[in-house]
Amino acid sequence: LEVVGGDLHQRGAPSDTSKPSTMASFAASVANAAVFRPAVVRRATPASRGVLTVRAGTVSTNDFKVGTNIEVSSAPWKVIEFMHVKPGKGSAFVRSKIKNYITKSTQEMTFRAGEKLQTADVEKRKMQYTYMDGDQFVFMDMETYEETRIDDDDFSKFLLEGQTCDVLAWNGKVIGVDLPQTVDLEVSMTDPGIKGNTASGGDKPATLETGAVVTVPLFIQIGEKIRVDTISGKYLSRCKEEGKK
């Protein structure tokens, strides 16, 4: 007996080449099994439309901006003011004023220049303010028609019905609302305008249609629309002057 091509044959007998060898048949069956074995398909869950999630990472205090979200003492905070200070002696630092999204309290903190801080993992969802329900503001997701009720906060000063905003959530809890950086609002009450005055000729308080009070130039009159910065609360321009050089 002798082994020929993986098969056992009697010595001197002609080998049968019309049949595949045992080893070759085994290899072919393994290959076929690999080819026809069903593949495991992993389906990616599509991200919800209109939802932006700011994943936790780090941010340098040198890159602070108004509105930057940071995590301090396991709570989410928003930077509302900051100033870079370079003393004559000693290291540079950043004097900051931050607001706690949960408690709504503000706190002044000082950080080293270039210090790395944890950013808050905040989810932003585009929603439209629809109506008031008692003391709460009701926002609606215009794709799913899901409603979210939010307690009053600083955002209400410049909020109009039908306005689209970013509703913020952290760890599954709604923590606040981000308005557009600028809004156009009508002046509902102010002292009579004085012709000939310019922006550098003085200013006066004006009550807007949302109830917010801002400082405006003397020439602004009741019924005019003005553009306001929602972060600083400052007057920017008279809307009808937009586009004029």
> How far apart, in Å, are the first and last alpha carbons?
105 Å
Low-confidence stretches: 12-24, 26-48
The radius of gyration computed from the alpha-carbon positions, rounded to a whole number of angstroms, is 34 Å
Order of helices and strands: EEHEEEEEEEEEEEEEEEEE
- Percent helix among the residues? under 10%
What is the 3D form? flat
> Helix/strand/pairing class, anyone?
mainly beta
Average pLDDT rating: 78
Give the count of helical stretches. Answer: 1
Biggest sheet details: 6 strands, antiparallel
Give the amount of beta strand, in percent. 35-45%
Write down how many β-strands occur, each being a DSSP E stretch of 2 or more residues. 19
Secondary structure: elements and pairs:
Blueprint: E1 2-4, E2 7-9, H1 22-36, E3 51-54, E4 58-60, E5 69-72, E6 75-85, E7 93-100, E8 106-112, E9 116-118, E10 122-133, E11 136-140, E12 147-151, E13 164-170, E14 173-178, E15 182-190, E16 203-208, E17 213-217, E18 225-229, E19 235-238
Antiparallel strand pairs: 1-2, 3-10, 4-9, 5-6, 6-7, 7-8, 10-11, 10-13, 11-12, 13-14, 15-16, 15-18, 16-17, 18-19
